[in-house]
Design a protein that fits this description.
This protein is an alpha/beta fold. The chain has a single domain, classed as Decaprenyl diphosphate synthase-like (Undecaprenyl pyrophosphate synthetase), CATH 3.40.1180. It has nine helices and six strands. A six-stranded parallel beta sheet has the order 3-4-2-1-5-6, sandwiched between helices. Helix 3 runs parallel beside helix 4. About 30% of the residues are buried.
């Protein structure tokens, strides 16, 4: 191991020890950004960048499991991404399908979040078969956000809630009275799960782009310049250390 590699390992171990004194996030969100730019700067194809990013997701999840983080939401495909060229989308669908299968085979529980209907029917069927065969006692649950947009999620939640209330025979005023923060929360894609404590975005962009709009009202954010395929375990540890040092006020 060269000197740089040795120093990296020492720093990584030090960060890990520092985190032992803190409570880590129970729900971690990650916006995996920068695959295409990473590939372009490396002189590689866009597909190569997406495959490198997919491999990094599996590595990232192994780090989270080692640290005892029980829930991770990964944004793999946004509603805006659905407007990309057909040839890029075809490659993306294949990569996403392979990645979800690999996540399940790694022993993690997968929940599809967003518009899974954006994926080809054959791929959805294969994912369902993989999910049915997956163990039920996974230490890590992974929400894979596909065809996801924060505004669309809120609209879907409200529409589903209104349909449920209408099905109970309520009129317009009765429905309006039953719409609340709690009732909408119960119809989100992440229903039954805690809101994200920390959201990480790579590639230097400092915006959420609609990621978990409703759920992130009290979330902490951590942005880094590194493109997603180059994200390292030490980057995750630094994000967690920064999170643990903050005083969360929850609007107070």
């Amino acid at each position: 191991m060269d000197d740089d590699g040795l120093l990296y390992r020492v720093y990584e171990r030090r960060l890990t020890r520092e985190l032992e004194a803190f409570d880590l996030p129970q729900h971690l969100g990650v916006i995996v950004d920068g695959n295409r730019r990473w590939a372009k700067e490396a002189g590689e194809s866009t597909e190569h960048g997406h495959r490198a990013g997919a491999a990094k997701i599996l590595e990232f999840l192994s780090w989270c499991e080692d640290l005892g983080i029980p829930l991770v939401t990964v944004w793999m495909l946004s509603t805006d991404n659905l407007r990309r060229p057909p040839e890029e989308l075809t490659a993306l669908y294949g990569i996403i399908g392979d990645t979800i299968a690999a996540i399940i085979r790694a022993g993690h529980c997968v929940r599809l979040t967003g518009n899974a209907g954006a994926l080809p029917a054959s791929m959805r069927a294969e994912i369902m078969r993989e999910q049915e065969a997956a163990p039920r006692d996974a230490r890590l649950t992974v929400n894979v956000a596909i065809g996801y947009g924060g505004r669309e999620e809120i609209v879907d939640a409200v529409q589903e809630l209104v349909r449920d209330l209408a099905g109970q025979g309520l009129d317009g005023d009765g429905i309006a009275e039953r719409i609340s923060i709690e009732s909408i929360t119960e119809h989100l894609y992440t229903r039954g799960q805690p809101d994200p404590d920390l959201i990480i975005r790579t590639s230097g962009e400092q915006r959420l782009s609609g990621f978990l709009l409703w759920q992130s009202v009290h979330s902490e954010y951590w942005f880094c310049e590194t493109y997603w395929p180059g994200f390292r375990r030490v980057d995750l540890l630094r994000a967690l250390r920064d999170f643990c040092r903050r005083e969360r006020r929850y609007g107070a």
